[in-house]
């Protein structure tokens, strides 16, 4: 350790309280900057992994973002439905390995109801090609059985054996509820951090059964009882969308073109990855705003350090004069102040990185469970290291201002301070 650096370290130790406050200011600013960056990158990754292993999403003719929003994220409504015959034709296509039908339109206390079949449990993937797992119970088998997402169970206090009433349409009001046809909860999905957690899953046959006696969203007279409906073999007439998995990725664009030019009805087939990229691009303004805010916080922290150094410099003018009297040259004083700023910034960075990993270890599991954002304890990325280097450089540059002021103070000025 050089004499100047040793002197800078002893000077920092001599002003412990002020130094600790400055270090914590830099540390908290860095935690926010790196935290926002880590959440941004992991949220983007989790967002892209909402659905995986699905090659095409097929729905009524629509824009690809709208189709993605209502079929995967349960946001909005379809412009048109798909005829069941069209689903059967494409699900049996020579290049199709599996197809998952999706029927939307009903709700339960603010949560969307999804009609589907056993293919959903077998082939739906999310994240890194992860399967859907049941935390409790089993998949639905009977007509009026349902499997609910983890958020539905947690927020509404449901468990296996609970009964729920489905409402027609998005608004769950008294006149739109299927009161005489309660569903029994037979399974609860394990948390996925995806829209699956906020969805009530029933069979396609159940969707058809509960709408017997309804027309255009209105109940026409008395509807059959559950026992009467269970005697029938219901088959859907239409579905909202379908997820398609192919036997070979090479056939993706050929099938997409065939679906988009299907003569029987207007359909749209989209690639989930491209649609997700476009949707994330639309949200980039919020992403950039977060980075700007965290950047300003770092600037505020560095300005606080500058203010602290300038304030302490006024109190240390006699100290500087004594150093000059002992033979220290102006450049030594200049170097001392810059080194102090660099040491404070460096310690603030070390404390900030330690605090960041501590917070990730503490809140990571909860964020993953409730928001689906993975926050792994991985090494700092090159971009994060570049941000840290920029903070260190800025802290050093900040030290130039008090250093110049100290450099210009004369020996006589320091020895004749008025108290």
TrEMBL record:
The keyword Membrane belongs to this UniProt entry's keyword annotation: yes
Segment forming the signal sequence: none
InterPro entries cross-referenced by the UniProt entry: ABC-4/HrtB_transporter, ABC3_permease_C, MacB_PCD
Domain MacB-like periplasmic core as annotated: residue spans: 21-261
Domain ABC3 transporter permease C-terminal: from-to ranges: 291-410
A GO term from the CC aspect: plasma membrane
Keywords per UniProt: Cell membrane, Membrane, Transmembrane, Transmembrane helix
Protein known as: ABC transporter permease
Protein source organism: Vibrio marinisediminis
